[in-house]
Design a protein that fits this description.
By secondary structure, the chain is α/β, with parallel strands linked by helices. It is 23% helix and 31% strand. It contains 4 helices and 9 strands. It has helices at 15-32, 48-57, 108-118, 178-181; strands at 8-13, 39-44, 63-70, 83-86, 96-104, 124-134, 146-152, 156-157, 173-176. Strands 4-3-2-5-6-7 form a 6-stranded mixed β-sheet, sandwiched between helices. A 3-stranded antiparallel β-sheet has the order 1-9-8. InterPro entries: HGPRT, Hxn_phspho_trans, PRTase-like, PRTase_dom. Its cofactor is Mg(2+). It is an enzyme of class 2 (transferase).
Length: 183
Amino acid sequence: MEQLHPDVKEVLLSEEDIRSIVERMGEQISADYADRNPLVVAVLRGAVVFTADLMRAIKCPLAVDFMAVSSYGEGVKSSGVVRIVKDLDTKIEGRDVIIVEDILDSGLTLSYLVDLLKGRNPASIEVAAFLVKDVPGNTPAVSPRYVGTHVPDAFIVGYGLDYAERYRNLPYIGVLKPAVYQK
């Protein structure tokens, strides 16, 4: 059992749970792209840990690139304003693209990103989301083709996910204590 960080209320997914989810997603993507060479696009910074593990679980040839977008700032809710902080270095015209995202809640930022990249004429574009947050009354603006698992509507940290650039290095997915972000 992992050592629980003092700011974490509970563990939702253990290291073993995460490994199992990533392996399953890697198998699905490997089967779907067996005869292709997809470009895996990691959405920085949160998805970098998941992307590294997922790439190792995908058994077909692939390439990787990175994008960084900002819509949160220091807060806990999306600001609704999307800013491209780092764009792709790779031309995606005619390429199969898989956008890798750490967590999907409203999907507004990801929807903006998908539309932006579609304008660059890829052969295909799909989304692999490690976590989908189940928010009552909310249907995300994007439906990922590959979904790791669903999580409750709570402030999730660990395995690349952060609050104010902290907790990304936790080896599990946990729920942050409200007292930490309600200061």
